[in-house]
Amino acid sequence: xxxxxxxxxxxxxxxxxxxxxxxxxxxxxxxxxxxxxxxxxxxxxxxxxxxxxxxxxxxxxxxxxxxxxxxxxxxxxxxxxxxxxxxxxxxxxxxxxxxxxxxxxxxxxxxxxxxxxxxxxxxxxxxxxxxxxxxxxxxxxxxxxxxxxxxxxxxxxxxxxxxxxxxxxxxxxxxxxxxxxxxxxxxxxxxxxxxxxxxxxxxxxxxxxxxxxxxxxxxxxxxxxxxxxxxxxxxxxxxxxxxxxxxxxxxxxxxxxxxxxxxxxxxxxxxxxxxxxxxxxxxxxxxxxxxxxxxxxxxxxxxxxxxxxxxxxxxxxxxxxxxxxxxxxxxxxxxxxxxxxxxxxxxxxxxxxxxxxxxxxxxxxxxxxxxxxxxxxxxxxxxxxxxxxxxxxxxxxxxxxxxxxxxxxxxxxxxxxxx
Length: 419
Known about the structure:
By secondary structure, the chain is of the alpha/beta class. It is built from 18 helices and 14 strands. It has helices spanning 3-8, 10-25, 55-72, 84-93, 105-113, 132-137, 160-165, 177-187, 201-210, 228-243, 257-262, 275-282, 319-329, 332-342, 352-358, 363-367, 382-392, 400-418; strands at residues 46-50, 76-80, 100-104, 139-140, 143-144, 147-153, 155-159, 193-196, 246-247, 266-271, 288-291, 303-311, 345-346, 372-374. Strands 1, 2, 3, 6, 12, 13 and 14 form a 7-stranded mixed β-sheet that branches. A 5-stranded mixed β-sheet has the order 9-8-10-7-11. Strand 1, helix 3 and strand 2 (76-80) form a beta-alpha-beta unit.
């Protein structure tokens, strides 16, 4: 699935989860213990539901399923969802979920909280081979629930023609905030801005992390949005906006930052590797390079990461076979096959060198793996995060301290509700 699209769908899934949570709390749904008393193999066909980015991804997953069947004798039926979020929530509420399905980080938190998922993460081969940020994203109450499917970090994407016309060279690629501000200003012309950003937390939180700030603790028990590090970071982003060297896509007549970049309304953007597909299909003549994100004032490097996992429901009658399938799908060979078929990054560290060799132009996305942080996700936090995004959209005219104080209050209230 295109991870950018999966993040857009989170709010829709949150609404669907109301029905699921009600079913769980009424006693007719899932047990609070997501670990079954015995690994159930099941004798039927494994049902797999995916949120496909297109024909290439669907064909690749079906080919992988066929290879697994040939190897194991277990039949697998892969379906590309028409509306993944809706179909998952309906299946969960009716106690008829697919045996394996794509699940994003925010939705994972909600389903894990209700006991709707099987915590099988440690049952696949070499679970510690998954990148740490991805394991953290799919860990709830210290249990590693589901194997990460693939992922993306954020990189600095530069239009090389604009770069050259501005008299910039490889030596000018920014490695600090001051340098980023300087080149953004230099690249800004009457008809083009130097930098455009996704106006949500997913496109801005990396600055907070680069300044040594924290958002939510790994155990989801505390938040620190209102720290001085975070205020200073958001103040830096606001300054870029008020000086005119950074604009949001909406100010550039674009639906998202990749479109603004592709239309040459911006010379640089910070975006994940889903930019590749958009550029190839919509803006094939635009030449660009990807670089690591600049470090913050104290030298801290950080990037956001986005991922989905192969989820297995607690109510599946075929958990053992489902785990075997996921183990096959997350092998290095199969992840490389997926990468070549539809451009994703592997979730296993042991595939890093092989992937980097094959996809050198995107190497900067994966070279930041050690500095990657999971995207903001908290059970029951969809409304609080949505409110955060709404405030960030007004950053140019709003006090950063006021924004972060409100977010801190809202997220702390959600944490308290979660107990």
